[in-house]
Amino acid sequence: MPKKGKKVPLSDEEQLLLFQQKLLADEEMAKKKERLLSQFLKDKLAKEEHNSALNLNKINTQWRTVLREVKTKELHKDIEILSQTFERVVDCKDSVIKSLAKDLSEAEEQYAHALRSHLHNVDQLLALQRCRLNLLEESYNMELEALTKEFETERKMIIDQHEKEIRYLQDVFMAMEQNYIDTEYESKLEFQSMWDDLKNKNLEEKHFLRLQLENTVEDLWRRFQEALKNYTDATEDRKIAFETLKVKDEKSSKEIEAQMKKIQKLQDAIGVLKGKIMVHSRESEEQNQYIRDDKELVLVQLRKLKAQRTQARGVSQENLVKLTLESNATLKALRKIVDKGEKILKLAEICRKYETEEEKVLPFYSSILTPEEQVEIAENNLEELTEELAKVMTDYTGMENFWKRYNKVKLEQLSLQRRRTQLLEINEKLREMLKQYLDGISVSDEVLSQLNPLFIINHRSNLPQPLSTPIAQPGSKQRPITYNIIEAAHVIPPTL
Question: Which of 4, 244, 296, 323 is most buried (most C-beta within 10 Å)?
Answer without folding.
Answer: 323
